[in-house]
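Weekly structure sync - notes
Attendees: PM, LS, DV (DV joined late)
Agenda: review two folding runs queued last week.

Item 1: First target. Sequence and structure tokens pasted below for the record.
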Amino acid sequence: MALTGVEIFKLLPKTNCKKCGQPTCLAFAMKLAQRQASIDQCPDVSEEAKQKLGEASAPPIRPITLGTGARAVKIGEETVLFRHEKKFVNPCAISVKISDNLSQADAGKVIAGIMESEIDRVGQKLRVDAAFLSNDSGDASKLAALASLVASKAPELPVIISTTSPDAAEAALKPFAGKNAVLYGANKDNLEAMAQKAKDAKAALAIAASSLDEAAELTEKAKAIVPDLIMDSGARKAGEMLRDNTYVRRAAIKKGFKPLGYPVINFVGRGDSMLETVVAVLSVTKYASIIVLDHLEKWQSLALFSLRQNIYTDPQVPMQVQQNIYKVGDPGPKAPFLITTNFSLTYFIVSGEVENSKVPCRLAVLDSEGLSVLTAWAAGKFTASKIAQFIKESGIEAEIENKELIIPGYVAILSGAIEDKLEGWKITVGPREANGLPAFLKSRA
């Protein structure tokens, strides 16, 4: 069980030196108890206390990083059962299976599909995170050839190598040595050998168990060789996944049961794409850290990426778009120039209606801390001063010929004040509702 703030305080130096950034040792102890600080921030703590406190401040679900570089993905590190309690920390990694029974050409198409899966939503880049290389043939040379193909075509793509053969694992892991790959397929018969192969390649090890009891037993044995572990309880039906994923999360977070304190991998592949997506939705919402799909169509990726993004946002902070000036279509120097707030729903609605108008535009999105137009105006987040400052600092004047800014109709009251602060600009009041934008923009084209 995790230590309380008072119990942690008893193990600290009690000097109130402020070297940790907190005013007192008690305040630092409370931060540690809430997992909002690291024991490494205290330079004077003893090694004995550091060992105890390091364990106490560690998240109940071990954090693991897949891959390296720009495509690296962090999983695990979760601290709560329910999203409204705090927030889920690291979004689950979505991976697509590539069988070594495929020809090089067909495997290349799957790899290309993974690399081209990226979409932009609310200013965030969403994509397939990893490739799951499956040794369906049972032939070590075929798996090694597939691994080499992936390494050559997508060198930064995180990979999960799936095999029960230690020799096949060794050959397939070679192109990804030191790249935080995952080796899946360790079971009660090959555990030590597979753990050693993962250790040699500096990879994480995924346990393929037949039950939660077996998973807990195998993680206890494997952690002495490889600390970074991932678990598969053997559940394949949706109900079984829900049950096991919930047991794992509750055992780790509520009971502090270390043998189950690792990320979970779910296999949701189905012959029917719709059913596969439904099961994947279950895994996204209920605690899977890695989800393995048999295939991924465009409509599936849009649904799953959007759901994952929503689930892994902070419920206490409105979903926001990054402050910027976005282009809708291919606007020229005389294209209309509009402004709105960075509340994601507002952005989606406004940009969607602008796109429907078929009139290329520039859309300025002002940081209003995720509030809608009227709410931001009432809260002093969408004011003439802030709008004028944003426009001046954006450098947009060098890109456009007509210094005209179209503001939302609901804040028409701001037009005069904005004109006073933006010398040489014309402020035009647009429609009150976004659905009026297409007709408004077409009438000016």
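Item 2: Second target, run right after the first with the same settings.
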Amino acid sequence: MALDSWEEKYRERVAGLRPPDPLLVETASAVTPGRALDLACGTGRNALWLAQHGWKVAAVDGSASAIETLRAHAFAHNVCIDAHVADLEQGEYSVEPTHWDLIAICYYLQRDLFETAKQGLTPGGILVAIALMAEPGKEHSPFRVQPGELRGFFEDWEIQHYREGADATHGAVAEIVARRPLTSLTD
């Protein structure tokens, strides 16, 4: 979806906030809060939940309306979120290397972002990703992963969770929770 289309979608959206992704909640609840980065955060349902549960959160989205909504929700819930408007596809946001304890990329697919996000995690850090999967009529979409593709981005990582299947809201999805090795494979 083009950035202008997302901007329009967020401007028209009712002020309510959907609940956070259950996979993110389950994953983040099992570890000690630290620094979290929510890439392509939309209106910030995951970022807000993380901040409310003790995480120091940065959130990035290309839609100014989405970030405005996120900031309003953060203010209303008395939490601090470092929110940025940046087009990830244009490289307008740099993921700081070896800085984040958790990175979430939920319902956004930019294949070249995975390597950058992986490098942004501290050793032992966790990446949570959920992507739409190819379905009949959408087999060749650049915004949908093929079966097994998402897992392939995390070879040599500890896969804590991997699932491909139906999602009540989005249809076919692939989801992964992967932990960065504590040491590099070359050590």
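Discussion on item 2: The chain has a mean pLDDT of 90.
Action: LS to circulate a short write-up before next sync.
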